[in-house]
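Possible race condition, two jobs.
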Amino acid sequence: MKASAISKPLVVSLIATPLFLLAAVASAGAGHGSYLVAKILFPFTMLSTLVFGSIIAPTIALAVLQFPFYGFILGKANVHGSLPARAAMLLLMHVLAVAACFILIGDSFS
């Protein structure tokens, strides 16, 4: 039961990650589209553009690992019986980061 409780959220996040990455890249259109989807799905990577001026390899790794990290945290919380509280915490953190993206980053971040 413990392994299953941990693995379900992690597996879901591992399936969602490539789909979310594809949606963000397709929306960005190689820099000629909109970064709206990227700001919503990967706000921490987008916030890093404030420091680096562009999306760089380490921040791409951050985007790739973001949802699996969420899945791992939620899986551990599921085992310990704190899933609703941890899910709310992750959601709040994510929403605040998205809000920061819309406040601090314009249409073009370069």
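Job #2 (started ~2 s after job #1):
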Amino acid sequence: MDSKQLVAEYRLAHWMQIIQDRQDSGLNIKDYSSRIGIHHNTYFYWQRKVRIAACNHIAGNSDETSTQLAPGRFTEVRVVETVEPEAHGLIRLELHGIQISADSGYPTGKLIEVIKGLASL
């Protein structure tokens, strides 16, 4: 890995942490940006870059900056029970209000990748 890639990964990881801190703070983007001394447009710029990297990671694209999108944290994943008779064999997961449904035969590894990608956003 060359130094440019290393710097790009470091910056992306740094902004992923800033975005997570903003979400944890409960502040809106304008107030949070003002609080940490950046322009809110800078925040939006990096938020977009982080989202693109997450989507590329989920899609398996290796031409973009590869970075660890799930930075060593645990997040609650809740299995939502269903009473719909036609939903037998269906997996439903909910993460921060986002529901993911998949056939029970869907590869578990792919579901985990989707969850990690969503958790990092």
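Strands lie at 78-79, 90-95, 98-103.
Logs attached separately.
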